[in-house]
Write a structure and sequence with these properties.
The chain is an all-alpha fold and 79 residues long. The protein has 5 helices and no strands. It has one domain (2-67). 67% of the residues lie in helices and 0% in strands. It is globular.
Length: 79
Amino acid sequence: MPIYNIIVLLEVVGRPLWWIVLLLIPCVNIVACIMLTLDLAKSFGKEIGFAIGMILLPIIFYPMLAFGSATYRGPAVRA
């Protein structure tokens, strides 16, 4: 099931499926996760400050994104 979660996340942010390979490479996966988090915040109309909060304090900012007033605006990145 974890692979399916990644596939759905990649579709939400608009990244191609080959990014799964990047998430399997050590050290590269850290940069890829940061980029995915930035794209996820942009997909919901949030700024970079919110994305940094999602990276540093995910236990607070992910629920804010999920249960707040943010609406999905489409993929941040057009593949």
